[in-house]
Amino acid sequence: MVGAGLAGLTCAKVLHEGGAEVEVFEASDGVGGRVRTDEREGFLLDRGFQVYFTAYPAARRHLDHGALDLRYFDPGAVILRGGGREVLSDPLRDPGALPSTLLSRSATPADKARVAALALRCLAGRGPEAAGEAGGEDASTLACLERRGFSRRFIDAFFRPFYGGILLDRGLSASCRVFSFTFRMMARGWAAVPARGMGEIPRQLAARLPEGAVRLESPVEGLLREGGRVRGVRGPWGEREADAVVVATEAPVAGRLTGEKVPEGSVGEVCLYYETSGVGAGKKVLLNAEEDAFVNNAVEISNVSGLYAPPGRRLLYAVVLGGFDLPDGELLRRGVEELSRWCPRADFRPLGLRRIPYGQFAQPPGVHATLPKNRTSTPGLFLAGEYTVDSSINGAILSGERAAREVLGR
Length: 410
Ligand SMILES: Cc1cc2nc3c(=O)[nH]c(=O)nc-3n(C[C@H](O)[C@H](O)[C@H](O)COP(=O)(O)OP(=O)(O)OC[C@H]3O[C@@H](n4cnc5c(N)ncnc54)[C@H](O)[C@@H]3O)c2cc1C
What we know:
Elements (H helix, E strand, L loop, with lengths): L5 H12 L6 E2 L11 E4 L2 E4 L5 E2 L3 H6 L2 H4 L1 E3 L4 E5 L2 E5 L9 H6 L5 H15 L17 H7 L4 H16 L8 H13 L2 E4 L5 H7 L7 E2 L6 E5 L2 E7 L2 E4 L3 E3 L3 H8 L7 E11 L8 E4 L6 E5 L1 H4 L10 E6 L7 H15 L5 E14 L19 E3 L9 H16 L2
Parallel strand pairs: 1-9, 6-15, 13-19
Antiparallel strand pairs: 2-3, 4-8, 5-8, 6-7, 10-11, 11-12, 14-17, 14-18, 15-16, 16-17
Helix pairs in contact: 1-9, 1-13, 5-8, 6-8
């Protein structure tokens, strides 16, 4: 196995459960790939603001939700626009937010009825295992929202910053299948984080592997090939022969290592971390509905799980979609500037930031039908990774499960 992200770890777990001997070579100093949590001054800093949807069908097969000690976000969001804020929520799950949701000027009564109808439709039937697996024609998220009749005001005030935060793209150019699947996940379950940070998810998967199965700081530099088949891997640490090699890295690395065709393009974010005196949004996400938004969305994550901050202190994540080339000082300063406009009485002390230019592989309409298969045409070579399913925790886990089944011949 090459790579100890969620795809590689799940693949290794299923192979191990199937009786195979597995060794995972990971280039970095920890497991989790894009899902890791660092600790600084007692604050838990996830590598980018990410949430886990409890309804993820493939993830539910491999993760023990109880042991993750999941903590839940409140449904809906606080929308910031024109110096004011209003709450938009699901009145069935969040009755306290009913009056503000009904009075909200961001959505017309027809918008609210359409959201309710969409949510009801999501509750019916089983639905696909992953975003890319819905049938029919595909289009951009924006085109689908327009086709469904949502007002421009609601699209700009809610869908742009909300799905901008999920799809890492305020333009809503990603496939509508990703939008529909995510909407379905929200209707059928809860958005959550493990009490001790998102890094608990890969740690739980890794704990199911035999001791020593994951070799950290062991990059793979090439594949060993012989007679048209792949028979192992090599790196600065030496060579390792194997009956099967599963490459479970990010798409660009997988393309370089294997020569297989992988999807191109990516979307990303810069995540800013601040200690704060409090922004008064509880467990809801704050969405910036301004046209010239710098911070797209923010959340006081220590309200969702108190363990993200030392006792009596508060931690805020703020997401910028872009700005990768700006110096650290400017990113953090502009973040404070914007947050202070929303919450003039709050303090913000910068704790750091993380640039993540390769957050997710780009998912334009139609891309899911073109993604590579887990079994390549080269004997002995398999692919795992979100980019074989869809960019999500669920997609990565499903890809690992499927790659393992291919290796085991099941
Ligand atoms: C900022 C951000 C926000 C996101 N938000 C969400 C969200 O809210 N909800 C959601 O469901 N999903 C979200 N995602 C997507 C989700 O995190 C990813 O789809 C998933 O983690 C990808 O897992 P993976 O195993 O396919 O790849 P990765 O996690 O990238 O794992 C690949 C692994 O391969 C290793 N590797 C690379 N090259 C080599 C080499 N040569 N040798 C050995 N090892 C190598 C890497 O170090 C890494 O550990 C988000 C992602 C990001 C970054």
